[in-house]
TrEMBL record:
The gene is SERPINA5. Residues 49-406 form the Serpin domain. It comes from Galeopterus variegatus. Belongs to the serpin family. InterPro entries: Serpin_CS, Serpin_dom, Serpin_fam, Serpin_sf, Serpin_sf_1, Serpin_sf_2. Keywords: Protease inhibitor, Serine protease inhibitor, Signal. This is Plasma serine protease inhibitor.
Length: 406
């Protein structure tokens, strides 16, 4: 089986930053920056929210966690080599309007994002990058190589896919290095007929702007369902947080900032209103929230939790209209002159851990491409029942998840 493997990696960790408070002027600047855009770059529109709903419908009442940024940038990079309807489906699935210049804007936006996120900054680390591993025996289109290098700042590395074990070790070592050892042995079944591996990774390392005290964490009830309760370590801190009560969607939104420009949004639906919130949350709603969030004193209870998600995106993305790339109708002739190539598999894995100091997370997406013969007053807010979580950094949704069972 000949395959083209696409990997996307996301890591979020709380360690290594010096705890400090921002002045109110800096906090206002942070909120202004968040207001500039709340959707994933390079995608636009409601890609993250549509993908979430598709994942949630396939696994009701389960924990969900994924990286919209990782998946969308992978698809955007793949679109560089797609042609005809295959390209159209990818771009439309990402939420791009079919207007002149939209595709160019997509790739230029990706380039700008890569440049911005890799700038040194105080308070936390955030880096984003790409790599392309190619077999020297396989001819890759010059235009595709040039675009990947220029627009996506990708490393291009030769790999001998005739030695699957050696190529697998080379790529896994690269992935482990870029994610500081958090993602290891991601590729497990390379074959001698594989032709290319594309990697996207992001590394994020931060702490809460104001950490929770370990001494305030106590075992409390978490209501998984009205009938099922589990005991969880519940963090607690009374402090100024960003807060919003959305009466239309029947939910409370609490913004807990990290050091730097990143913020975690925790969304607590009213009893029985989870589905209403899930269906109503979109780019427009998130923009409204970010505009209306105000600081107020909260007695916040938030569980320590660790959840993970694993998804076969080749079974999910057709629900968003991205289907041809996984079938015999795929046209990826912009990548290589090899004919009869399609993506037979695309896998995404993500893990998140939230504790008193901050958040740790890692995610990986793998897409396999091969021949068609192949596959205001202090208010208590207690997150003691299923809730949603978004981690937003400036214009990008880094993570999106639902905590049903911590």
């Amino acid at each position: 089986m000949r395959r083209f493997l696409l990997l996307c990696l996301l890591l979020l960790s709380p360690q290594g930053a010096t705890l400090h408070r921002h002045h109110s002027r800096e906090m206002k600047k942070k909120i202004r920056e968040l207001r500039l855009g709340a959707t994933v770059v390079p995608s636009s529109g409601d890609f993250a929210f549509n993908l979430y709903r598709t994942l949630a419908s396939a696994a009701p009442d389960q924990n969900i966690f994924f990286s919209p940024l990782s998946i969308s940038m992978s698809l955007a990079m793949l679109s560089l080599g797609a042609q005809s309807n295959t390209k159209t489906q990818i771009l439309e699935g990402l939420g791009l309007a079919p207007v002149a210049g939209a595709e160019e804007e997509l790739h230029k936006g990706s380039q700008q994002l890569l440049l911005e996120l890799n700038q040194p900054r105080d308070g936390f680390q955030l880096s984003l990058g790409n790599a392309l591993f190619t077999d020297p025996k396989v001819s890759v289109q010059d235009a595709f190589l040039s675009a990947v290098k220029t627009l996506y700042l990708a490393d291009t590395l030769p790999s001998n896919f005739g030695d699957p074990a050696g190529a697998q070790k080379q790529i896994n070592d690269y992935v482990a290095k870029q994610t500081k050892g958090k993602i290891v042995d991601l590729i497990k079944n390379l074959e001698s007929t594989d032709i290319m591996v594309m990697v996207n990774y992001i590394f994020f390392k931060a702490k809460w702007e104001t950490s929770f005290s370990h001494g305030s964490t106590k075992e409390q009830d978490f209501h998984v369902t009205p009938e099922t309760t589990v005991r969880v370590p519940m963090m607690n801190r009374e402090d100024q947080y960003y807060f919003l009560l959305d009466r239309n969607l029947s939910c409370k939104v609490v913004g807990v900032p990290y050091q730097g420009n990143a913020t975690a949004l925790f969304i607590l639906p009213s009893e029985g209103k989870m589905e209403q919130v899930e269906n109503g949350l979109n780019e427009k709603t998130l923009r409204k929230w970010l505009k209306m969030l105000t600081k107020r004193k909260l007695d916040l209870y938030l569980p320590k939790f660790s959840i993970e998600g694993s998804y076969q995106l080749n079974k999910v993305l057709p629900g968003l209209g991205i289907s041809d790339v996984f079938t015999s109708h795929a046209d990826l002739s912009g990548i290589t002159s090899f004919s009869q190539i399609h993506m037979s598999e695309m896998v995404h894995k993500a893990v998140v851990e939230v504790d008193e100091s901050g958040t740790k997370a890692a995610a990986a997406t793998a897409a396999i491409l091969g021949f068609r013969s192949a596959r205001l007053s202090s208010q208590m807010v207690k997150f003691d029942k299923p809730f949603l979580m978004l981690i937003v950094e400036n214009k990008s949704i880094l993570f999106y998840g639902k905590v049903t069972h911590p």
